[in-house]
Specification:
This protein is mainly alpha-helical. The protein folds into two domains: 199 residues, no CATH class; 195 residues, no CATH class. It has 15 helices and no strands. One of its GO terms (cellular component) is plasma membrane.
């Protein structure tokens, strides 16, 4: 008698430790809290203060991307979980990286002040130097937990950290801490997260300096590093140009319009990718065709959903800004209408990159980012000359589209 096998449901429903429900809950709560924090603090402080804090966070983003080891992704993607000694070497590497980044940021604070018109507020950059150190001290058990798809634990940590970040950030802004409130809230959240990874997650690596035993991760992680550097250029290029040429106030308007579009579109896909990357990798280990079928389902759903959201947000842009942020921010509406398209493509790219990295083709993601950089180099100068700041925003969108086209081509070649 022939047995008929039904196709497995790709998403685990319910509230088991590995259920996608936890990823969705984490995405809704964490991104919602981030949105509340930025919107409330933005309304309290105005564009100039947001611009000053953005410069400090820009410095952190640049330093972290230039020193990205790719070890977290390599641990998740690898065929076998790391041993306790290997996890110790991962922790040593990441903690040392965080310390070096912090020292570099403190030393470069006067240069950032001179280049981005901080008005002497170098303390913002110096305070932000603690963020990479706090992140580097977290236990590598966090990555192992992601690898094993224990999303319930990840969601609990991320939500708790975000509650502290949002609560303390808004309270400090109301108390008169100014742009420091954004950074202090983030520091409290990151410190809590790092402590909890050691208390609640296992296996705990030995806390001693160890550098050897993780050479087998280098082949995969080098492409992650290269991709991070290129993504740094594509993601932070606009902020560097606006901040340096136009100052903190204009950077604040640019950053808020971009951030709001990111919250409503790209952040959701980024949160989903935390589920998709280890899930695609697990399916790929069981058989490439299984991962490919699952990917197609997510891709179709992502394209349909993003198209609907973009249409709604472009029509609702002006009343949204007026109601949420106030009249002081209405000048950012034209940029926001471009950024929603930009972030929709970025969200699609997150799904594509998760799949390609999960099947071991991290090189394709790096090449896609290089193509995006080339598109920006060619298109930004004439776009800036003809259309000003909006031309730069459209150039970024075209660059993301070229990135998506290349990754779609590489996915097609996987079949």
């Amino acid at each position: 008698m022939r047995v008929m096998r039904l196709p497995a449901i790709p998403i685990k429903a319910g509230f088991g430790p590995g259920a996608a429900t936890w990823v969705l809950l984490q995405q809704v709560v964490v991104r919602g809290l981030v949105a509340v924090k930025f919107l409330v603090i933005g309304r309290i402080l105005g564009p100039s203060a947001i611009g000053l804090a953005s410069v400090a966070l820009l410095a952190v983003a640049i330093a972290e991307a230039l020193s990205d080891t790719g070890l977290a992704q390599a641990v998740i993607q690898g065929q076998a979980p790391p041993t306790r000694q290997e996890a110790g070497a991962v922790w040593t590497t990441l903690a040392t990286r965080g310390l070096l980044i912090g020292v570099l940021l403190v030393a470069s604070a006067p240069l950032m002040d001179a280049q981005f018109h901080l008005g002497g507020a170098i303390g913002l950059v110096q305070l932000a130097a603690l963020l990479p150190l706090l992140r580097g001290l977290a236990s590598p058990a966090y990555f192992i937990t992601q690898r094993e798809r224990h999303f319930q634990h990840i969601a609990a940590i991320e939500i708790s950290s975000s509650v502290l970040d949002c609560g303390f950030g808004i309270a400090l802004a109301l108390a008169g801490a100014g742009p420091y409130s954004l950074l202090l809230g983030m520091m409290i959240g990151e410190a809590f997260k790092s402590v909890v990874t050691w208390i609640a997650l296992s296996p705990r690596p030995p806390i001693r300096l160890r550098w050897s035993g993780i050479g087998h991760y280098v082949g995969f992680s080098r492409w992650i590093w290269a991709s991070s550097v290129i993504i740094l250029i594509t993601n932070q290029f606009d902020k560097v140009v606006v901040g340096k040429l136009l100052g903190p106030t204009q950077l604040g308007a640019w950053q808020m319009s971009s951030k709001l579009a990111q919250m409503l579109l790209a952040d959701a896909a980024l949160a989903l990718s935390q589920y998709l990357f280890p899930t695609f990798a697990a399916h790929h280990r069981g058989g490439p065709q299984s991962a490919a079928r699952l990917f197609r389902l997510y891709l179709i759903a992502a394209v349909a959903g993003l198209a609907c959201v973009v249409i709604v947000l472009r029509f609702a842009a002006e009343p949204l800004f007026s109601f949420v942020l106030g009249a002081a921010w209405l000048s950012a509406v034209p940029l926001f209408r471009i950024f929603v398209i930009n972030m929709a493509i970025s969200a699609l790219n997150s799904v594509l990159a998760s799949y390609l990295r999960a099947v071991g083709d991290a090189r394709a993601v790096t090449v896609a980012s290089l193509l995006q950089v080339a598109t920006l180099i060619v298109s930004v100068p004439p776009s800036l000359h003809l259309f000003g700041v909006t031309g730069v925003a459209w150039s970024m969108t075209f660059g993301l589209a070229s990135c998506a086209a290349w990754m779609l081509y590489r996915v097609a070649r996987q079949k």
